[in-house]
Amino acid sequence: MKILYQSIVFALVILTTHKSYPNDEPVYFTDKNQEQRYYLLIEEIRCLVCQNQSLADSNAPLAQDLRNEIFKMIKSEKSNNQITEFLVERYGDFVLYRPPLNDNTWLLWFGPFLFLIIAITTAIIFIKKQSQNNTIDN
Amino acid sequence: MIRYLFPLTIFIGLTVLFIYGLQNDPRYVPSPLINKIAPKFTLPTLHNPESNISINDIKGTVSLINVWASWCIACRLEHSVLNEAVKKYHLTLYGLNYKDKRTNALIWLENLGNPYIESAYDEYGNTGIDYGVYGVPETFLLDKKGVIRYKHIGPIDKRQLDDIIMPLIKELEQEK
What we know:
The complex is a heterodimer. By secondary structure, chain A is an all-alpha fold. Helix content of chain A is 63%, strand content 0%. Chain A has helices spanning 2-16, 32-44, 61-75, 80-91, 106-137. In chain A, helix 2 runs antiparallel to helix 3. Chain B is 43% helix and 19% strand. Chain B contains six helices and seven strands. Chain B has a five-stranded mixed β-sheet with strand order 5-4-3-6-7. The N and C termini of chain B lie far apart (64 Å). The relative contact order of chain B is 0.19. At the A-B interface, helix 3 and helix 4 of A face loops of B.
């Protein structure tokens, strides 16, 4: 029981503590909307140094620089599209956690459906065979 | 028979796929800047804060821009290769000193030798961002028109220099 309480308190502390980025310049927004966009964007951009982390997660110096860059761009009224374009021009589509649909990525987008179709067809063939066998046995 | 062959083929197929996957370097991210004009920059030189170097000073000959820093351990490995390369070959090698302390960088060059014609001093890493730098050392190969034709990520070793970079430079030098 004690352990349960402790873990609940621990979880609450973790969940309610605001994310902070130790070496960053502090970010101040006067506009709530801009602030939301900032936090969304840094979640959706990949850090190229620690490739499985977003800019929001990573402590790599490059992630700090890019967070800073995004902050500045939002402050200077750049749109989300302009910001992602800025990053893609320099680092390629790889920086986006949501890859765009193009020649290189169509298999990534439609592959799962392809596998689904294969799975369903296999299942149908299998079931048909089984029921045929059953009728023969009976 | 098919009952056994089916899982076996799947197994072999996956093995081939995994072996192929293991050969790939996940840290290698193809640069969107290949075959594009090298991004503009104007930066103070490392040796003299009063004087500037810009991309226009580099354009005109086939040249290498090597992104380095004194805090970068892999750069130390690469440095001896670069030192030897400029002695052995006719190379136009520029440095981009990335997010470094000027004094540290200067001491580094003094101790280990300076293969660069000039190093640009990118104190805050802004030019680095424009060049899509994410892992120092990185090296860009520019043709005579200032178009980036090749990018090397990580330290260049002797073999890569002789087998990949030098042949490419010779090829680019043939272009008008």
